Amino acid sequence: MFKGFSSLRSKLNLVFSITLLLLAILFIGSIRYDHAKFDEHNEAHERSISHYLYNYYLKHGTIDTAYLEAQNVSLITDKGKVIQIERSFKEKGKDTHYAVDTIHLQRIILINNDRFKLFLENKNRSKYPLKRIIVFTIVFLLIILLYFWVVRSLRPISELKNKIKTFSEGNLDIECASDRNDEIGEVANEFDHAVKTIRELIQSRQLFLRAIMHELKTPIAKGRLMSEMLADEKSKARMHSIFQRLNLLIDEFAKIEKIASKNFELHLHSYKMSDLLEASVDMLMVENPGRLITTEIKKDYIINVDFELFTLVIKNLLDNAIKYSADKHVIVIINEDRIEIINNGVELKEPLENYFKPFHTSKSGLGLGIYIVKSILDIHHRELNYRYEDGKNIFVVI
User: Fold this and answer.
1) Distances (CA, A) of 80 to 84, 85, 207, 266
2) Rounded distance, CA 51 to CA 56, Å?
3) Is 343 helix (H, G, I), strand (E, B) or coil?
4) Using CA atoms, how far apart are residues 166 and 172, in angstroms rounded to an integer?
5) Domains of the chain (ranges, CATH numbers)
6) Which of 34, 91, 150, 376 sits at a 20 to 30 Å CA gap from 134?
7) Are 105 and 83 in contact (CB under 8 A)?
8) Nearest to 122 by CA among 33, 48, 215
9) CA-CA-CA-CA torsion sign (64, 70, 73, 77)
10) Does pTM surpass 0.85?
11) In the chain, where does DSSP find H-type helix?
């Protein structure tokens, strides 16, 4: 019922709306109460006038017109008007000894007894509730001012939320410090302190990883030079391939580090899925990939992705599929809006979600493959699904 009022701003609007509604109900109720009290008093006053006129007529044989004027009541003497009023009373069935009716916005009193028959106009009206209107207007304006004051006080929360969102998207260059002396200012200052701490930790981690990768590249480069000196061409090619593979792995780790720290700018372009698959197979750097991978293109399609990252996704899925395949063979199917990577093997022991965690327990690796795949697919707003059918593991990128 209150699902739409989950935000603080919605709850605030609801509270002030109910407050204004209750104020309006109170104002209308008070006006109606005043009208009811006036009508009650007016009716009693009209009856007392009737009794007074009857008693006065018994004593003096005449109507006390001075008294009527003093009570703001006038005697209707115009014959034409009397006839119209009398007809109206008869039509409404009020042609009795005493009756009151409103005719043309005039309150008319009929007094009919054994002594006389009179039509009187009661000119008394309820007073305009000016004081009450002024009081309720002041209260209304105070509530409105209070509302805008509270909303203005909460505005920094929206600004802080936007900065937190910016921070979550990977932008670490934000400042949230506040000079406010309330709870919002305290939260902003604590978050600003946390941002600075996280920024320093990430920068130190990046510096550490880059230093390691730089140091690794030096022996790799030396190893490639040494491999060039080998006389055996087959051994030379194999060593050259190994060092090239190591170099590519370091570059991949650099990408992973950027992805994990959300410090990576996507370069989205349109590519055929078949072209992405071909590039991914090349990245495996295996001899005669045709004997390991069978490709079946039912319906090729165009996809808008970052080339380097998405080929890394397919490469990791292919690498895992080959590594854990019972026959070291993988089938890849491209069809309309998905790519399926299939191998013969045992079913995953745990739900796929558990493998999305970094350094998941693995007997033949660091357990980073699926974590990297998941991280890159999240950036591209795409999904990785898994099912096991007829002794086959099927991974699907949608």
Assistant:
1) 6, 9, 107, 94
2) 8
3) strand
4) 8
5) 3-122 (no CATH), 268-397 (3.30.565.10)
6) 150
7) no
8) 48
9) positive
10) no
11) 8-60, 65-70, 79-91, 130-168, 183-228, 233-260, 273-284, 307-323, 369-379
Other C-beta atoms within 10 Å of 98: how many? Answer: 13
| Token pair belonging to 70 | 């003093």
Give the SS3 label for residue 261: coil
Q: In which band, very low, low, confident or very high, does the pLDDT at 261 lie, cut at 50, 70 and 90? A: low
How far is Cα 292 from Cα 222, in angstroms, rounded to an integer?
A: 32
Three-state DSSP class for residue 330: strand
CA distance 349 to 363: 13
pLDDT one-digit tens code per residue, 125-181: 888 888 888 999 999 999 999 999 888 877 777 778 788 887 777 677 778 777 777
Structural contact between residues 395 and 382, judged by C-beta atoms closer than 8 angstroms: no
Instruction: Copy the structure tokens of residue 390.
Output: 């007829």
Q: Which two tokens stand for residue 315?
A: 């490469």
Q: Is 343 exposed, middle or buried (0-12, 13-18, 19+ CB in 10 A)?
A: buried
Q: Do 320 and 282 contact (CB within 8 A), yes or no?
A: no
Query: In angstroms, rounded to a whole number, what is the distance separating the alpha carbons of residues 198 and 282?
Result: 38
How would DSSP label each residue in 281-293?
HHHH--SSGGGTE
Q: How far apart are CA 301 and CA 315, in angstroms?
A: 19
Per-residue CA distances from 394 to 273, 297, 314, 320 (Å): 18, 16, 13, 12
Residue 1's pLDDT band (cuts 50, 70, 90)? very low
On the question of pLDDT at 91 being above 90, the answer is no
- Strand, coil or helix: 361: coil
343 touches 330 (CB < 8 A): yes
Percent of the chain with pLDDT over 90: 25
User: Is residue 119 a contact partner of residue 85, using CB atoms and an 8 Å limit?
Assistant: yes
Count of positions (residues) in the chain: 398
The two beta strands, 117-122 and 338-344, are unpaired
Helix axis angle, 130-168 to 8-60, nearest 10°: 170
Task: State the pLDDT at residue 367.
Answer: 56
